[in-house]
UniProtKB/TrEMBL annotation:
Gene name in the database record: napD
Keyword Disulfide bond carried by entry: no
Pfam families xrefs: NapD
A single GO molecular function term of this UniProt record: signal sequence binding
Protein's recorded name: Chaperone NapD
Family that this chain belongs to: Belongs to the NapD family.
The keyword Transcription is assigned to this record: no
Native species: Photobacterium proteolyticum
Organism placement in taxonomy: Bacteria, Pseudomonadati, Pseudomonadota, Gammaproteobacteria, Vibrionales
Length: 90
């Protein structure tokens, strides 16, 4: 029985406050991203749900390279394993 995994990660992205809305829209254009909070000071909480760790690091790099992003850092990373075959298939 094949096992698959999902990587759940959270990031804090610090943005120049005057560009907060623009950067949030750019982040949401990236696959598997959700925004779960923000502050007036330009900090954004981003949650990723990806198939492997490579997607996590790629997404961090993409966000960090957006114009007006000051820093991006990983706060939390968890790997969940599950069977790819559902109970109905057994």
């Amino acid at each position: 029985m094949a096992q698959e995994e999902v990587h759940i990660s959270s990031l804090v992205v610090h943005v120049k406050p005057e560009y907060l809305e623009v950067v949030k829209a750019q982040i949401l254009e990236l696959p598997n991203t959700e925004i779960h909070g923000e502050s007036e000071e330009g900090k954004v909480i981003v949650v990723l749900e990806t198939a492997n760790q490579g997607y996590v690091t790629d997404t961090i790099d993409k966000i960090n390279n957006l114009e007006h992003v000051l820093t991006t850092f990983l706060v939390y990373h968890q790997i969940e394993h599950f069977d790819s075959q559902s109970e109905d298939d057994s």
